[in-house]
Design goal:
By secondary structure, the chain is mainly beta. 13% of the residues lie in helices and 46% in strands. The protein contains 13 helices and 41 strands. The protein has a 22-stranded antiparallel beta barrel. Strands 3-8-9-6-7 form a five-stranded mixed β-sheet. Strand 25 (582-597) and strand 26 (602-613) form a beta hairpin. Helix 8 (504-519) packs across helix 10 and helix 9 (527-536) packs across helix 10. The longest helix has 17 residues, at 14-30.
Length: 885
Amino acid sequence: MLQAQTKRLPVIRRSSLALGVAVSALLICTSTPLRAQEQDTSDTGEESTRRIPEVVITATKREQTLQDTPVAVSVVGAQEIERAEVQDLADLQTLIPSLAVRQGQTAGNATFFIRGFGNGQNAIGLEPSVGVFIDGVYRSRSAASISDLPNLERVEVLRGPQSTLFGKNASAGVISVTTRKPQFEFQGAVESSIGNYDLRRIDAHVTGPLTPTLAASLSGNFNRRDGFFEDLGTGARYNERNRWGVRGDMLWKPSPDISFRLIADYDRIDETCCGITNLVEGPTGANVRAVGGQFVSQDPFSYNVYYDVVPTNVIENAGVSLQGDFDLGFAALTSITAFRRNENASDFDADVTDLSLFSAVAQQAKIETFTQEIRLQSVGTGNFIDWTVGGYYFDEKLSVSNQIANGTDYRRYLDSLIGNPQVLVNLENLITQSTGVRPPTLGGAGQGITDNGRQDNTAWSIFASVDLNLTERLTATFGISYTEDQKEVSLNAVSTEALSQQNLEQLGYTATLAQLLTGRGVNPTNPTQVGTFIQTNPQVYAQLQQQALAVAQGPANPFNAVRALQPFPAFLGYPNAVEDGISNDNSTDFTARLAYDVTDNVNVYISYATGFKATSWNLSRQSRPFPADYTAGNPVFDRFTQRPVFATPASPITAAGLNLVNLSSGTRFAGPEDSEVYELGIKAAFDTISFNFTVFDQTIRNFQTNVFTDEGFVLANAAKQSTFGVEFDVTWSPYQGLILAGGATFLDPVYDSFPNFGDGIDVSGQKPQGIAETQFSLAANYGFKVGSFDAFVRADWQHIGDSPFFDDPAQQAVIDATDYTREQNLINASFGIRTPSGLGLSLWARNLFDDQYLVFASPTVLQAGSFNGAPGQPRTFGMTVRRAF
């Protein structure tokens, strides 16, 4: 079975592999040590041959070495992060092959993927399937975790469902960040970087004792860089860096058995980001130009654009947490209490041209989160049973507001799309004749829609895990958790967009009936003539009514060209008489694992685990009632007989009198998702080499995803998505000072069942968008001596294979006809030297050979046939000076 599956995995490109091997070989050949480093000695004073250091992690909420933890986990230490010039969580994907990070059209719109599973992009109500924890505190949205990394100790990436111990929203995996605790010895460091795009970055931290039992640390960072996108119209730069943060940390140890750690932090991002450019110019490109618009056509890697709206992002994060640890003798008690606040405001140019089609596409969100975890663990070694029990509480209040308005060029653009500027004029006149009231200018500037939503989310869970040490080498682990999650949601929107509010079936009926009456010699503007005709020819008039209705509801409606130009219809808010805006979910999740130490250096494990993520609500104007609650259909009324010709089909919403013109059905939320994984792993660690090998089969049922429409994103559940995969990583030190590392992930992802993708499309059996089948990295790090100075040279190569841009086959076909790719081959390199006094200098470059790839693609708003997207970041390089004391 394994052999049959692996045959389906793609072949790695030879050219890419050769490039990576060449880089590694070059480093090996040119990095001859000037003087061998001294070897470590053990407590007995004997010389040790170990060159691969042991790493202590907390992936199972218990301190263990990486080798002794029978979980698929990758860990990156502070030194590796520093030498690789990793600045935020997005950069970590260059070091961890199973992790992928994609940023959308705003700075806070990032998504983390582990083994190809991940979500949370472009919808604030869609909580991520990859949980991010910093010092044990859950960050519920990516915008709360993308800031520059603080004073780090390590980053752990746990692959696969982790709901048993990590609870809420860890159905695909966990990113756990651990920072350094304050020290009872005075020390610190300051570093400053300069680079291309006028990079200026400063980081500093200091720590030391305040009293014999109280230590503190203070850190701060500032990161400023010009953008690499240029607006050819204004000369402005986009995709800049402008962020700073401060962090205070206090550690109080009143006794050897008790400690408290208090952390407070604040960071701010204020950037013009993010640049989006045209990828495919459809037929509507000519319409843009016809009304005087400009855009850079099909040249994303020029990093040139024309905008009339400056893309801005302001993100503020703040929080405080208190961790208490108590040694009770028989067990260790841990309590983590945290409160966090995240505020996010952004604006972007939706049409990606310098036309004022939309004068504003503004979004604001505020999230306040309180969390409490209590955990009790057994202590000591050599126990037959090691156990952990605990509970977790989560309380979050979220508010969100979105605004979009027509710009001053919108009406002229609509006239160009329709091809006849008289159509909208005629429509305005018809409305006036039918209602006796002149409507607002159809497509007029300033008209739009504003939506406001709130979500109160409370959740709690209890969990327990038991390790049964059956023999000195065989351990059986069983874990269980129970979670309840409740959301109370409200959402309302007010549309002032006059064209979107027009009942085109009604107008089409009125116009067609007038033509039919005129053909019968009846003046439709003369009520007396019409009344006489109806009275004397009732059956004929009934036939005319049905003819007019058939035209109005069919392809011959004279106003069908306008139908696609109604993006902001009236909105049915909730809760209402039919929809209560409440979801209640619960789940019991399990972990079962058997781990066996084959030798002191090699262990194997087999495991099964489940995961859970609660309902995610669509907190945007694209939220629609479910088909079970509403059957769409605009009513048609005959103004001469004063009777309905067509009534909206029966449904609970219609029965409650809540029907609105142009209201359609869709989804309000994506239901809860459940995941499971079967995993077989081998771990080995020797003095000079270590490796890990994992085979897994992971499935998520009712996977929550976004489906893009012309006007925005809607939520959907893929009935079943699965991935069979193989992961491998190795670290080898062939001689003192040189460490070679490599890792690879091979995936075979598929939508096993997704019949309700949208618009009658069934994508079952299709490969999901955005998941690369191959992802791997190679790295070489060599530390050596130059006289009394310590030096290093490092390089890494990250390869991410190509993947579909869309789940919609028709949209993907458009991109397939181009040369665009998501494949990445990034080479990063650095060189550094440090004096005995702690002064260091390093030179570094990321994406050294300026690899060109696309991050994402999407249909362009109200420009049928056109697609826009975001190119990856170009080459960056610089110099960093560090001083440790």
